């Protein structure tokens, strides 16, 4: 993997580009001297957790022939207090699924993602982040 990072302005605003040309803007907060023009790097880690697990869960449910009409994830995460660097201490993921989905299959798909397949979850786990989750099915 190759990532290129380019400073965009005279502050902390950065544009990251992957090998495929996909771009992401990162910046720091106003309080830290940034201009708030992008996602914070540590927020991107949590976004990556959601994206990684979402792909896993949807792939598993598709293989199980579950009809997913809508899919959404919410994540609440807390970083260590008064530490530098401040790692992620906890992350709680709520998986919202809509469609003709068996509750046991949905729960198992999420469990497999979070405990076996999602590399971002394992990376966070290796950093002692406490990961918890729940599955909510909607009609």
TrEMBL record:
InterPro entries assigned: KH_dom-like_a/b, OsmC/Ohr_fam, OsmC/Ohrsf
Q: Which Pfam families does this chain map to? A: OsmC (PF02566)
The record's section on Gene3D superfamilies has: 3.30.300.20
Signal peptide range equals: none
Q: Which domain of life is it from?
A: Bacteria
- Its recorded name reads OsmC family protein
Highest classification ranks of the organism: Bacteria, Pseudomonadati, Bacteroidota, Chitinophagia, Chitinophagales
